[in-house]
Design a protein that fits this description.
single chain, 575 residues, two-stranded antiparallel sheet, 18 helices, 2% strand, globular, transcription cis-regulatory region binding, Zn(II)2Cys6 transcription factor, transcription, Zn2Cys6_DnaBD
C-alpha cells in the first residue's frame, strides 16, 4: 500500500498514483483571518486521505503506466512494497498519424468512434510499441478483421477524400460538404450510401513481386507527376499508388500503364509486353462490370482514377490509331449537383477531373473538333481562385470554351464570345505574381527566349492562356467594315490579316513555345505538345520552324511521346 510520502513526492510523477496527485494542482489554503482556519498539516493530511481512497477505487479499472520505466517493478512501487502492474497493449492498435484519407476509409468500412476498446491488465511488462512513420505501410495489423491497414499520408495530403460520395459527419452531426468542382445535374444525393463490388477493395495490402515493384516505382517517379501538373497535393504521386496496394482495380491499371510506357522506352525488354497484356486484361475485366453499375461506380474516385490512368497509357498511341476507348464522355456525368462548377483544388476527384479535361483538350486540338465533355453540364465557377493551381484550372476551363467556339459552334452552354474574351484577359491581368517567370533571358541565335517558372501549374496556366488567345485570334480575326464578325479570313485583306498575325497571334505563339521549351517538366511538355503544334503553324521563320520540329523529335526520342500528328500539323496551312 503506498504511503503519503509516495503521493506527495515532489518529482514529476509518471505512474498512476503520482499522476493523480499531480493532477490535483496546488492546494488552496484558507485566507488569513477566515473562520475555521485549519493548520497546514491538517489540510494536507485530509487531502492525502481523500486521494488515497480515490486511487484505491480506480486502481482496478484504470490503465497503469510504466512509472519510471524500471522493469519488472518500477521504483515507486518497489519503494512502497506494492505490486507493479502494467497495462497490456491491444495488438490491433496502429501507431501512426491519421490523415483524413485513413479516417474516411475506416468510416467506409463501418468503424466508428463508439467502438469499445477493451484493455486488459497483465503482470508482465509490455513489449515496446513500434513507431510507424508516415511512409511505412502497415501490413500485419488492422483495425478491422481481415481488412487492410491504411498508412497515413503526408501532411499536405490530409485533406484528401477517398470516396466522392460518402463524406464524414461533422462534429455537429451534419454531413460535411462535398468537394467543390464542376457538377452535373443528373445524380443522386451526395450522402447516399454506395454499394461497392467485393473485388473492389476489401483485401489485405499486397506484397509486390520484383516486376511489380519496378512498375510501381516508375509510376511514382514519372507517370504520377505527369498527371499532377495542376495538383499541388500530388494525388497521383502519393495517394493513388498507396490506394493501389489495397485496390485491385487501381493496381492493375498502374501496372498496365507503367509496363506499356516502359516497353516503349525500352524496346529490348520484350517481357514487358506480356506484363502489359496481363494487367490490361485483368483491369478491363474488372472495370466493365463496375461501369455497368452506373449508379455507383462512376462516383468513386478509384474508378475515375483508373480511367484516367488507362487514358494516359492510351495517349501513347499515335493520334491516327488512338481509339480513345478510355476518354469516356460520361465518366463524370453522374456526380451530385450540390455545388456549382468550381476550379478549386483539394481532392483526388478534382485532380482526376482536370486530368481528364486536359486529355480531352489534346484530342480536340489535334482533331480540330469540339470537346467530348459537355460544357453545358458544367457552368463556370465564378468564385475568385485562391491558389496558383486554382488559377491554372480556371484557365483550363476557359480554354475548353475557346476550343468549342472555334471547332464546335453549335455546342450549347458556351460562354458568349465577348464575355469569354473578357474573362481570358481578366485572368491574365489578375493572375498572382507567382505566375511571372523567375528567370528570363533573350537568346542570340534563337528567337525563343528562356522563360522559367516556379511550378508546373504556373506553366500549364500560361500555356493554356496563350493557346486560347491563339485559337480565338486566328479563328475570329478583325473583320473589315463590309464583313460580319463571324466571317473567316478574308483573302482580299491580306495586309490586314498579316498585321493581325504579326501583332496579335505571333507574340502568343513565341511565348507559348518559349515557355514549353524552357521547362523540362515532362508533364508540362506533353500537356502543351499539341498546343505548340497548333501555334507553330503561324511561324514564318525557317529557323523557328526547325526549332519546333527538333522539339517534337526530342519528345519522341527521349520520352516515346507520339508526335507524328504534331509534326503533320506544323506542315499544314491555316488552323
Amino acid at each position: 500500500m503506498p504511503d503519503e510520502a509516495d503521493i506527495l513526492a515532489p518529482s514529476a510523477p509518471s505512474c498512476l498514483i503520482g499522476n493523480i496527485a499531480a493532477n490535483q494542482g496546488c492546494l488552496r489554503l484558507p485566507r488569513k483571518g477566515r473562520k475555521g482556519r485549519a493548520c497546514l498539516s491538517t489540510i494536507l493530511t485530509a487531502a492525502a486521505s481523500r486521494m488515497l481512497e480515490n486511487a484505491q477505487e480506480d486502481l482496478s479499472d484504470m490503465q497503469i503506466s510504466q512509472g519510471d520505466g524500471v522493469q519488472p517493478v518500477c521504483g515507486r512501487c518497489s519503494k512502497s512494497s506494492r505490486p507493479c502492474r502494467y497495462a497490456q497493449h491491444r495488438s490491433a492498435t496502429i501507431a501512426f498519424r491519421h490523415s483524413r484519407l485513413s479516417t474516411l476509409v475506416a468510416q467506409a468500412e463501418g468503424f466508428t468512434k463508439n467502438d469499445k476498446i477493451d484493455v486488459s491488465v497483465s503482470t508482465q511488462p509490455p513489449a515496446p510499441t513500434p513507431v510507424v512513420t508516415e511512409t511505412t505501410q502497415v501490413s500485419s495489423t488492422s483495425l478491422f478483421p481481415n481488412e487492410p491497414a491504411v498508412s497515413a499520408l503526408p501532411a499536405d495530403d490530409r485533406a484528401l477524400p477517398h470516396n466522392a460520395i460518402r463524406y464524414p459527419a461533422s462534429e455537429s452531426g451534419e454531413a460535411a460538404s462535398s468537394p467543390s468542382f464542376p457538377r452535373n445535374p443528373y445524380t443522386v444525393s451526395p450522402t447516399a450510401p454506395i454499394p461497392r463490388p467485393g473485388l473492389f477493395y476489401r483485401h489485405a495490402p499486397r506484397r509486390l513481386t520484383t516486376i511489380e515493384g519496378e512498375l510501381l516505382q516508375f509510376f511514382v517517379q514519372n507517370i504520377g507527376p505527369w498527371l499532377d501538373v495542376t495538383s499541388p497535393e500530388r494525388h497521383y504521386t502519393y495517394t493513388v499508388p498507396r490506394l493501389s496496394l489495397q485496390c485491385t482495380l487501381l493496381h492493375t491499371a498502374i501496372m498496365a500503364c507503367s509496363a506499356h510506357i516502359l516497353r516503349l522506352l525500352n524496346p529490348e525488354r520484350t517481357e514487358l509486353s506480356s506484363e502489359e497484356d496481363k494487367y490490361q486484361s485483368t483491369c478491363i475485366n474488372l472495370l466493365i462490370p463496375i461501369l455497368n453499375d452506373v449508379g455507383s461506380a462512376v462516383q468513386d474516385e478509384a474508378v475515375l482514377a483508373t480511367i484516367t490512368i488507362l487514358r494516359m497509357s492510351e495517349q501513347y498511341d499515335e493520334y491516327h490509331i488512338d481509339r480513345q476507348c478510355h476518354l469516356v464522355p460520361g465518366a463524370f456525368a453522374h456526380l451530385d449537383p450540390s455545388a456549382q462548377a468550381s476550379t478549386r483544388t483539394g481532392g483526388l476527384l478534382q485532380a482526376t477531373f482536370y486530368s481528364y479535361v486536359r486529355a480531352d483538350i489534346r484530342m480536340a486540338i489535334l482533331g480540330r473538333c469540339s470537346t467530348k465533355i459537355a460544357v453545358s453540364s458544367w457552368p463556370l465557377d465564378e468564385s475568385y481562385p485562391e491558389t496558383g493551381a486554382d488559377w491554372a484550372n480556371r484557365m483550363t476551363w476557359l480554354l475548353v470554351h475557346a476550343i468549342n467556339h472555334c471547332f464546335g459552334r453549335e455546342c450549347p452552354g458556351l460562354l458568349p464570345r465577348a464575355q469569354l474574351d473578357e474573362l481570358i484577359d481578366e485572368w491574365r491581368s489578375n493572375v498572382p505574381d507567382t505566375f511571372e517567370p523567375y528567370y528570363y533571358e533573350e537568346q542570340e541565335r534563337d528567337s525563343f527566349p528562356v522563360i522559367r517558372l516556379l511550378c508546373s501549374w504556373h506553366v500549364v496556366g500560361l500555356q493554356f492562356y496563350h493557346t486560347a488567345k491563339i485559337l480565338l485570334a486566328s479563328h475570329f480575326p478583325p473583320s473589315p467594315p463590309h464583313t460580319t464578325p463571324d466571317t473567316n479570313i478574308n483573302t482580299n485583306n491580306i495586309l490586314t490579316y498579316h498585321h493581325h498575325l504579326k501583332t496579335t497571334i505571333l507574340p502568343h505563339v513565341h511565348a507559348l513555345c518559349a515557355i514549353s521549351f524552357s521547362n523540362d517538366h515532362f508533364g508540362c511538355r506533353i500537356n502543351a505538345s499539341h498546343c505548340v503544334a497548333m501555334g507553330a503553324q503561324f511561324l514564318t521563320g525557317r529557323g523557328d520552324q526547325w526549332r519546333v520540329i527538333e522539339y517534337f523529335r526530342m519528345l519522341g526520342t527521349e520520352n516515346a511521346w507520339p508526335s507524328r500528328a504534331c509534326l503533320d500539323m506544323v506542315g499544314m496551312e491555316g488552323v
